[in-house]
Design brief:
With 265 residues, the chain is α/β, with parallel strands linked by helices. The protein folds into two domains: 6-64, no CATH class; 67-255, P-loop containing nucleotide triphosphate hydrolases (Rossmann fold), CATH 3.40.50.300. 52% of the residues lie in helices and 11% in strands. The chain has 13 helices and five strands. It has helices at residues 6-15, 19-23, 25-34, 39-66, 87-94, 97-100, 115-128, 138-151, 154-162, 181-192, 209-213, 216-226, 240-247; strands at 104-108, 133-137, 166-172, 197-202, 230-234. The chain has a five-stranded parallel sheet. It is elongated. This is DNA replication protein DnaC. One of its GO terms (biological process) is DNA replication. Keywords: ATP-binding, Nucleotide-binding.
């Protein structure tokens, strides 16, 4: 049966949800004719355009759900400024095998060395690879869990943060945590243990997490689970922000407290 009615063809494309082909049909057919494609090649060309549109929409939806606070990419990371970061190791992490395995990734180091940049960039790569991803700061996470616990809806919040294949928790240790944070964080880590991956950035060495959480025993239990299947990257070096200000002559090297080494046992 030959379909000659363009409205009927349009309706069928809509019913099949082939929106990219439907919206650009004349342009795509003209391009196929210009390239003198065979019928099979033209069909493959149309399908490729449809797949590309759906893939782009999937990625954009995933990025929206992830709630990244800014756009950062691996191409935009200055590896030359942070020699402690191995580009090959970052590229390997960007492949996402650690996420598929449910491993944890800890990015540790002083402020300004690019931990959040790498966390967001790796998170974006995870979305592109098809992994559901959610970004939050440690302070926002704990605040939500404490509020949910007080309201009797902790289980619902734990399910929310346990659902993504990758949960990124940024800036652990930068600000004081609320009372009860250690126990609530432990519950979340236990819920995700060997099921979903965690990416945590912190300016504190793991040996200081007992101080961060205000409970050395629970902090040890948290680390026991996080470090069981984990990748730990310790970034040493100057702050990007302070380096830029020094180059501009706004501060003197001696005035910036950048000489303190970050010790990771």
């Amino acid at each position: 049966m030959i379909i000659q009615d363009p409205d009927r063809l349009d309706a069928m494309l809509g019913r099949l949800k082939l929106t990219a082909i439907r919206e650009r049909l004349d342009t795509l057919l003209d391009e196929a004719a210009r390239q003198e494609l065979s019928l099979r090649e033209a069909l493959a060309y149309l399908c490729a355009q449809e797949v590309a549109r759906k893939e782009d929409r999937r990625i954009q939806m995933g990025l929206s759900i992830a709630r990244f606070p800014f756009v950062r990419t691996l191409d935009g990371f200055d590896f030359s400024a942070q020699p402690a970061v191995d580009p090959a190791q970052i590229r390997e992490l960007a492949c996402g095998r650690w996420i598929a395995n449910g491993d944890a990734l800890l990015l540790l180091g002083p402020p300004g060395v690019g931990k959040s940049h790498l966390a967001v960039a790796l998170g974006r790569e995870a979305v592109r690879a098809g992994y559901s991803t959610l970004f939050t700061t440690a302070t926002a996470l704990i605040t939500q869990l404490v509020s949910a616990h007080a309201a009797g809806s902790l289980e619902e919040r734990l399910r929310h943060f346990a659902k993504p294949k990758l949960l990124i928790i940024d800036e652990l240790g930068y600000l004081p945590l609320e009372p009860g944070a250690a126990n609530l964080f432990f519950q979340l880590v236990s819920r995700r243990y060997e099921r979903g991956s965690l990416l945590v950035t912190s300016n504190r060495a793991v040996s200081e997490w007992g101080e961060v959480f205000g409970d050395a025993v629970v902090a040890t239990a948290i680390l026991d689970r996080l470090l069981h299947h984990s990748h730990v990257l310790t970034i040493r070096g100057d702050s990007y922000r302070l380096r830029t200000k020094r180059k501009a002559g706004l501060i003197k090297p001696s005035s910036a407290a950048i000489g303190q080494p970050f010790v990771q046992p």
